[in-house]
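Protocol step 4 of 6: record predicted structures for both targets in the notebook before any analysis. Target 1:
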Amino acid sequence: MQYTALGDSGIRVSRVSMGCMGFGEASAGQHSWTLDEDASREIITYGLEQGITFFDTAIGYQGGTSEQYLGRALRQCARREEVVVATKFLPRPAQAIDAGLSGAEHLRQSLEASLRNLGMDHVDLYILHMWDWGTPIEEYLAALTRAVREGKVRAIGIANAFAWQVAQANALAQAHGWERFVSVQNHYNLLFREEEREMTVFADQNNIALTPYSALAGGRLARPVGTVTRRLREDAYARMKYDATAEADAVVIDRVAQVAARHSASMTEVSLAWLLTRTAAPVVGMTKRSHVEGAVGAMDLVLDDADLAALEEAYVPHPLVGVMAQNTPAAARLNRARHRA
């Protein structure tokens, strides 16, 4: 395993983060394919044995049960100071806004709930899950800074944000003496490279760690085109993100398979090795031991210029999808209206 600095936070992390969205009570959230607690603990334990120290979860994953499973497993299998735990809080919901709950109080309540779920007195990285158009970013930055000074959070990050939003937030933080975002967790992989328009350069120039999600495009980059798995069948959210571009994506996936054959490596190893050339620590979902092994194996795979060209040259621009497509004030207003209806 390799390790790296998480931006300028002073925190060192494994170069792959175990994404915990696949852990949790299946009946408690949006995914039907998640692992139960015993199976989750087995994967977490195996990841620790392979040198993974960075774990990413969220209060929104399976009704908070992902946090609960992760917290109990780590208490049983690791010393707290040896692992880095990231969790995320959601924007203020419409009902909270209507009830007059401030952004600061919403954040405080979310953090306390996550700490209870995890059974911990602090989280290492606390992440705003997506840009909140209904709450001034100043309100969150001030509240996050209080959480850091209280010892409940070590560093702060953001997910599903544009480069201009992170730049604006960090400029405000600098002007007011608040904590700045040290990491960005956005949608980025060989099938979706829109982050390269601005974010990758911005992050590199400002020492911000990129910890992208959907590193394997919901498994599409881990197996040949046409392979069907339970997750590919049941993960409607991933299908929404990738089905519309499946024809163009198939060309890239075939290139991954060709490079993998050239190196006698797995497609997972090739896809992640490419992402490791561009980011600090990709968040990789792991629900099988083979997923852990593929992520760890990517550390040892060196791609040459010819490999990189083969993987990259077939990409065509993609429209924004998922949460990033909703990162507009109009979409935020529409979502609030739907919640209130």
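Target 2:
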Amino acid sequence: MKRALLLAAKGEGRVSPNPLVGAVVVKKGRIIGEGYHEKFGGPHAEANALRGIDAAGATMYVTLEPCCPCVPKKKTPACTPLIVRSGVTRVVIGARDIHPNVCGIEELRASGIRVEEGLLEEESKRLNEPFIWRLKTGRAFSVAKMAQSLNGRIGIRGKARVWLSGKEFDKFAQVMRSRYDAILVGINTVLEDDPALTCRIKGGRNPVRIILDSALRVPLGAKALKNAKREKVIVVSGKGGTRGKAAALRKMGVRVLPLGNGRVSIKKLLYLLPKLGISSVIIEGGAKVTGSALAEGAVDKAVVAVSRKKILGRGAVASPFTKKTIQGLSRRKMGKDTVYEGYLSEYSK
């Protein structure tokens, strides 16, 4: 099952809104087949693991309950009939699929296959946090990522970005960008830093870029808007801005998404994102956007890197993450930084 989990993780950033799944087929104490769900719309892990092998009498280890024909609007063939036809006699499952139409375990058992479940269940569930959260709540799973100083500051007002985190956390942040569906920032971050919001690791995948911009102040030449006709970029607007600016953005390939008449509600946006094919989002905004998300209860998970550096003097901007908040999270060392990570929403319950 550990091998299946490792295989499943290879699909990160490429299978959403489907779950990550890995499968390993074992016969006479030897692995004879393995596979994972590689991309949305492609063959599932079980099909890839069974391809080209004699699985009669074998055991399949799979991280998530196999799908069945009763799931509507499937893009790929159901896995349970394939497993039955393969001759597999035992299936070990990491976690049940909470989709209301999935009954894979029951179908396998009805076909005479021995089914065991719950092996490395917690790890299997954590692998698919966004998928599970979307099915439970109907909204996208959100992760707020931030780097702050030892004295709880994230920068100096009116000055260029203060670099706080080390290279280890910065690399981890790029992995997150490849892993999650989208990245969200506020207009002030775009105006002050002009970030590209892309993934800078080899083989990584660029996330959907989302900019909260109630008055449509985003410059047409902003780096985050580059290649908008090939890569999805969404500007979420309020009542401000002109029709001409919205038209110019759309001509560039940007999707302008009106949401309310005033300040954009991040929580409301999270409920809308699954309809756009987005199940998970990293909030990388500054104090204002992240603070608003925290106040709305729109942060499900937090990842906060605390540097050994301090920011002193006038104009220092306080982090929206208080010492009390991060002390309730698990921590680990990442280079010289201490990284606090954990759940802030009911997801952890």
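Step 5 preliminary note on target 2. The chain is about 30% helix and 25% strand. The mean pLDDT is 93.
Proceed to step 6 after PI sign-off.
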